[in-house]
Amino acid sequence: MNRYTGQTVLVTGAGQGLGRAMAHRFAAEGAHVLIGEINEDAGAELATELTGKHGVLAQSRALDVTRSAEVDDWIRQIHAEHGSIDVLVNNAGIIRDNRVEDITDEDWRVVLDVSLGGSFHCARAVFPGMKERGYGRIVSFSSMSWRGNFGQANYVAAKAGIVGLTRTLALEGARHGITANAIAPGLIETPMLASMNGSARDKLTAKIPMRHTGRPADIAEAAAFLASKAAGYLTGVVLDVDGGLSIGSSIR
Ligand SMILES: NC(=O)c1ccc[n+]([C@@H]2O[C@H](COP(=O)([O-])OP(=O)(O)OC[C@H]3O[C@@H](n4cnc5c(N)ncnc54)[C@H](O)[C@@H]3O)[C@@H](O)[C@H]2O)c1
């Protein structure tokens, strides 16, 4: 499929994990991929890889999504150099897990700032251009955890916030051809998952109805659908991509 030929797709935090897989997927379908990544080397390496492998235009910029002035400048530069923006993928996110009484001010703040603040900064910056053009797709990253998860009060608050942000962007964008949706991944094999406590991970994996963790490609598949022209009547949705884990408990 070549659904993204000629389109400009922005992916934040694409240096590794899900963002990297999505960048490859969009590039494989012909998109120009613009990466905003705090890890400058990882972003630059990915851009070279995308151009080499898929023959598309790919650029990376050192970007901290928590800094709104940096985000605004990035979007201004993209408009000047590439024209319009078709897709924004708000992927950058971090975890700093702890029980509620042990979450420091800094760990509360930074987790919300990166995931929720970063998604807001990027959405706010692309919105006027998308509105003017009457077209845009925003895909943001929530998590299966948004419903509540032990030891993750900061992350859960950020990921539930993404749901509210997404639903509001959907309302405000609807009459302008802009859709906004969220993906709520379950357990996907990425460096973020590798950093999770081993026994917690094993216990959770055993609860997945499909009995195995997901692959970054599973998420890339969902993102490539949600961000496509064909998904134009679908907005404000939180798409669970989790092997059935969020369905609820099963006695078997
Ligand atoms: N992996 C999973 O199982 C899983 C499950 C649910 C939700 N998610 C969500 O999916 C998204 C991607 O997860 P992942 O597993 O690929 O994570 P990851 O840790 O592997 O990658 C995150 C990327 O974001 C970048 N980043 C961090 N802070 C940044 C900042 N301030 N500005 C710009 N870039 C920044 C990092 O450098 C890194 O490249 C996150 O929002 C995460 O919360 C992941």
TrEMBL record:
Ketoreductase domain mapped to chain residues: 7-186
Lyase listed as a keyword: no
Stretch forming the signal peptide: none
InterPro entries reported for this sequence: KR_dom, NAD(P)-bd_dom_sf, Sc_DH/Rdtase_CS, SDR, SDR_fam
Coiled-coil region list: none
EC number: 1.1.1.100
Keywords annotated in UniProt: Oxidoreductase
Gene3D superfamilies tied to this protein: NAD(P)-binding Rossmann-like Domain
SMART domains according to UniProt: PKS_KR (SM00822)
A molecular function GO annotation: 3-oxoacyl-[acyl-carrier-protein] reductase (NADPH) activity
NCBIfam families reported in the protein's UniProt record: PRK12826.1-2 (NF009466)
Family: Belongs to the short-chain dehydrogenases/reductases (SDR) family.
PANTHER family recorded: 3-OXOACYL-(ACYL-CARRIER-PROTEIN) REDUCTASE, 3-OXOACYL-[ACYL-CARRIER-PROTEIN] REDUCTASE FABG
Name of the molecule in the record: 3-oxoacyl-[acyl-carrier protein] reductase
Organism of this sequence: Amycolatopsis magusensis
